[in-house]
Design a protein that fits this description.
The protein is α+β, with helices and mostly antiparallel strands and 75 residues long. Helix content is 23%, strand content 25%. It has a four-stranded mixed sheet with strand order 1-4-3-2. The longest helix has 11 residues, at 27-37.
C-alpha cells in the first residue's frame, strides 16, 4: 500500500508476518522468482519454523510476507 504522506511506520518486529498460503504446486517458487526478477531479495525469517517452511520477503518499511506451500489447514 501507499500513503500520500509517506510510510505508516516501521514494522513492530521481524516476526510480524503476512502469511500467504499458496496451494498450487510450484506457486511459491513462481511468486518468489517474480519478486526476485523485480529486484526484491528474500530474507531469513526470525522464527525457525518460517525458515523451514517459507520464502520470506521484506518491504522497504520492514514489513514481511511469508510465502508458504500448502493451504494452512491441518485436517
Amino acid at each position: 500500500t501507499r500513503h500520500e504522506h509517506g510510510s505508516p511506520g516501521a514494522a513492530p518486529s521481524k516476526d510480524n508476518l503476512l502469511v500467504l498460503y499458496l496451494p498450487e504446486p510450484g506457486a511459491v517458487e513462481a511468486v518468489a522468482a517474480r519478486l526476485e526478477s523485480k529486484g526484491h531479495k528474500s530474507v531469513e525469517p526470525e522464527n525457525p519454523y518460517w525458515k523451514a517452511n517459507s520464502i520470506t520477503f521484506e518491504d522497504p518499511d520492514g514489513w514481511r510476507v511469508a510465502l508458504v506451500r500448502g493451504t494452512g489447514c491441518t485436517d
